Amino acid sequence: MDETNRLVLSGPPALSELRLKKFSKQVPGIVFSEYVHVLECEKPLTSEERKLCEELLDYGPKSDLPAKSGSLAFTIVPRVGTISPWSSKAGDIFRISGLQKVSRVERGVRWFIDSGVAPSTVDQSILFDRMTQQCLESEDFSDLFVRTKPRPLEVIDLLGSGIKSLQKSNEEMGLSLSDEELEYLESSFSQLKKNPTNVELMMFAQANSEHCRHKIFNSDWSVDGQEHLESLFQMIRHTYQMINGKNILSAYSDNAAVIEGPNEDRLWVDGSTKKYVFRREPQHILMKVETHNHPTAIAPFSGAATGSGGEIRDEGAVGRGSKPKAGLTGFSTSHLNIPGFRQPWEIDFGKPDHIVSALEIMLDGPIGAASFNNEFGRPAITGYFRTLEIDDSALAEGSIRGFHKPIMIAGGVGVVSQEHVHPQPFPENTALVVLGGPSMLIGLGGGAASSRSTSEGSSDLDFASVQRGNAEIERRCQEVIDACCSMGVDNPVLLIHDVGAGGLSNALPELIDDAGSGGLINLRDIPSADLSMSPMEIWSNESQERYVLGISEEKIKIFEEICQRERCPFSVVGHSVSDGMLRVDDALFDENPVEMPLSVLLGKPPKMHREIVRESQARDELDLSGISLGEAIERVLQFPAVASKKFLITIGDRSITGMVAKQPMIGKWQEPVADVAVTIAGYNSYKGEAFAMGERSPLAIISPEASARMAIAESLTNLISADITDLSRVVLSANWMAPAGSNMEDQALFDAVRAVGKEFCPALGIAIPVGKDSLSMQTRWKDNAQEKSVVSPLTLVSSAFAPVEDVRLTKDPVLVDAEDSCLLLIHLGLSRLGGSSLAQVYRQIGSEAPDVDDPKRFKQMLEFILDLKRRGLVLSMHDRSDGGALVAILEMIFCSRTGADIDIPEGKEVLPFLFNEEVGFIIQVTDSRVASVTNECPVRCDLVGRLRSDEDVSINHSGEEIYRASRGQIQTSWALTSYKMQALRDEENCAREEHSLVSLSRHDDPGLSSKLSYDVNLNICDSLIVSGARPRVAVIREQGVNGQQEMAAAFCRAGFDCVDVHMTDLSTGLVSLSDFSLLVACGGFSYGDVLGGGGGWAKTILFNSRLRDEFSSFFESNKLALGVCNGCQMISQLKGLLPRSDYLPRFVRNRSEQFESRVVMVRITENDSPWLSDMQGSVIPVAVAHGEGRPEFELRDHSQALFKGKHVAMQYVDSHHQITERYPYNPNGAAQGLAGVLANDGRVLMMMPHPERVFRACQNVYQDQEWKEDGPWLRLFRNARKYLN
């Protein structure tokens, strides 16, 4: 490439001072890092064009930056031949800004080291991802844009060399094929009279991996020499057959299960007018739960991110297209071993070099999962976290139980229309389409890799199998799917599948096979960001954010137009044929990498047969001698399965969509103890969906059957705190993890599945229509000469789902202030401590596990609780699970900041009663109802506590007080583990400030509250709506924006006509802002925030003449405009277009250095904005969810001018309603609590909080008793409507 056509521009620091300090501890010698941008230009740039490039690449904070020092040692750039996701988004910005000469822009990172440090002593591997990047020791960018030649196809000489050639390829390629499968391939290709290609072998290995084909679950079994008549999968299907599939529309045959949902108003964008319209229709509920365990052990951020991203695609790819709605996330790891916080239950067993520690997994993995959910725009609103690492006498020497291979769970619910639940067959010549990002050499062989136990393969193959995520492109894909689905029966999509394990080599064959056809694929029509890839790598790589679709031949033009509007990449890669063959042509090499019948690929390779001979293991009984109650309480409260999970929760956006009614954080003090997640069916509805999780893996060391029953029981005891009408509406997802392969572990799996599928669930009348398995849950390695292994116990993660009648009627653990009330324990009567948190914190397991011995009594207990709730007798409730009844009561106290006297019933031993984890409920009832509840209860009912007027907790036994401490002291201990993790990961002072609030009394910290200067229940627009006049609102979005739907819903409620306006509509002249009375720029991650929050979006407007004129004319016309979150960030950077706006700040990285999702309070300032009329002085709770919300001013005078000129709209306040900079009352460190600003005499409002997500009372996590249907933020939207009258 001509040097004159390549431009290198230095960028801002790559790491903040805090991140640099933390990173330098990992890599000693590193003192500074900065971005560097390399531009490939078709022609030399003019000076004006170069200046424009420099302006576009001027982003990030300008203050509080680390000083540049040291000498340049390494430069990290994208791997030669690849195009990075950053590049594709930045390239879009450059093109829209008029820089057509710039064909590509890439970003690298320069690393500087201390002058006294030799580069050879620095561990480069930590600096970059070797799958997608390379390290340059001398800064030579000449190869960065080189178009490398593609690697060739390989043919295996089966016909000449026989099965040995397959065995060699199996080992070298890491295919994990069994001997029987190799024999099957030898026979099949011999009959076809052709040598297989490496493309066909890799494809077969992925399509027939344990991960994809569930071979163990479909195996034949013999038990003690007797053939068993059913496979594991057939036993699971038995649950469905026992209820005759009642209310289940789809099971076992698609990406997710579907159950009947309610008839409600659903908000759509009309395909022709682009108006938002409500249509009343069935909103069927879909659910899916996946695992991504192996990748998370290797690269936690990417593994967990793509785990969430892959499951989201499953939810969007049901039938002919569907929509993800809300998610869940869970982790099981070995013990954390937090530096400086070692715990007595932790052991130092070691690990293999190529997997990361449990601590690293829990610092990086949850961020990966949360970031993908956040950027895509799906709230993740429930989950679990467990650690386990303990000796087990049943294992061989050198082995322990634990989760070195972690469990990473991703799941959730979605919605699908009646006409899209089931696919349609493909007519001849149906277009086969790949939608989404390009192919890259990442995630190769992931299906096979996830089917191996960790350390069984090579570390290179392990790392190669980890995918990398790009949530913004997946969001664009979903927008295309939504647009297609909005067409109803005219949807051009006949069938859709996501691209996951095995890449296109699995997805396209499954697509055409499910449609009853064959397919002809043109390999070189598959979009690729790496031209060096071989045919096998193009066909089988697992690049994320892709879907495959069958599109009606006559509707392909409509589909193309939708994709072009969304700027979503797609390619027609082939067409369907009727002969059942799969052919892949390679025009470049004039070869056929694949030519085989689908029946060979997806037919019936040899079925596995497994044998078990029953064996039993003797377990030591628990030894509780010498354990003091105070020490036991402290240990259990700091045990990760029991301790506060706040560090895992505030990083995830839990209010996006405006359809969340219940999420983990509850009460005035927002503690993470909710039992259930609840979403709302629609913006005009109180119906909804509930889901909850259960997991009790330690019990499986004692009894696999008990562990499985208890996992399901826990998911149900969590679920029924929501307004579930009947248990018959509940369905389960069962995710099975096991270290299959030995007699003992196979017996555990078989017995647990049989207990659930043939006995427990049928007795409850509950089906399991969806699930997943991961059966290689062990890690093996050599430590010097010693063989070591960490073997997980059998684990069932149960997720329960059900429709909800009224989302407002969920009963949560927040205690009601009522002096005449008490706490009752509803339970089945036993107090077994085996596998409990108490046992584990003393490095024990025990011999008797809690269990649901009588499913009938358990079902009676559930139905009794549901009946009490229907009758209004339950004031608050919490299930008993990890930590036992004591922890359940304490968590109710924590989220209510009260005290309690806890009474141990007569005849009960202290530790077993307080800490056993048998199924049960703590319910709060009034004294007047105690007798009737006790008399009616079909199981055991004990009075166990009363509230106190102070905040002390006392425990009493046989009339004596045996323990007493303040609520603040106990809760500080419970919150300590979360604080330690947060301090390691985020800005330490922020973590300390938040932790210090836990000990404050309710007087010193009153929690969330509201103070309104207006009547929240008064509709000031009633007469305007009756008149029929509805001003038009342009609901503006850019690629990556994800908050437009709830914004439109809020404006529709206030009496507006809302129109979906993509920036493509404005840049092409299809739509003009002059046709609208008001514009709103919505929240999200425009362009993935590659040039800073809202920066790329703003610059495409400022540097595109058509867009600049559109926005300038609109603002000069003195119309109303609103920017929220990403829209706020964007509008605040349009200073040159906004009248009287020189003082506006930019919004940069939060002080905590973390994405913050919180409910905070803001005070509306004295101002003249029509948006905030009559709201001045009000203090209102509101959702925030952003990573870049801290205002940064160009000049200090601008801040002063903002406040003096009444340009401040709102400020963050603390629980006493005082303006604050203290975290987390102020979530981003904004000086003087600045939360929103005004321009153009108040007609333009920019705010970081999200009023559109909480315009209904039921969307708010804190609700004042005076609020009825409307939330206080609806007044903002109604003020706009009144102003435009």
If strands are numbered along the chain, what order do they take across the biggest sheet? 44-43-45-46-53-52-51-48-49
Radius of gyration: 30 Å
Uncertain runs are 446-450
DSSP helix fraction: 25-40%
Averaged pLDDT = 94
Please report the distance between the alpha carbons of the first and last residues.
Answer: 61 Å
Strand content: 25-35%
Structural class: alpha+beta
C-alpha geometry = globular
Compute the number of strand runs. 53
Number of helices: 38
Largest sheet: 9 strands, mixed
Describe this structure in words.
- It is a single chain.
- By secondary structure, the protein is α+β, with helices and mostly antiparallel strands.
- It is 30% helix and 25% strand.
- The strands form 11 sheets. It has a 9-stranded mixed beta sheet with strand order 44-43-45-46-53-52-51-48-49. It has a 7-stranded mixed beta sheet with strand order 19-21-18-22-20-23-24. It has a 7-stranded mixed beta sheet with strand order 37-39-36-40-38-41-42.
Features:
1285 residues, nine-stranded mixed beta sheet, alpha+beta, single chain, 25% strand, seven-stranded mixed beta sheet, 38 helices
In short:
With 1285 residues, this protein is α+β, with helices and mostly antiparallel strands.
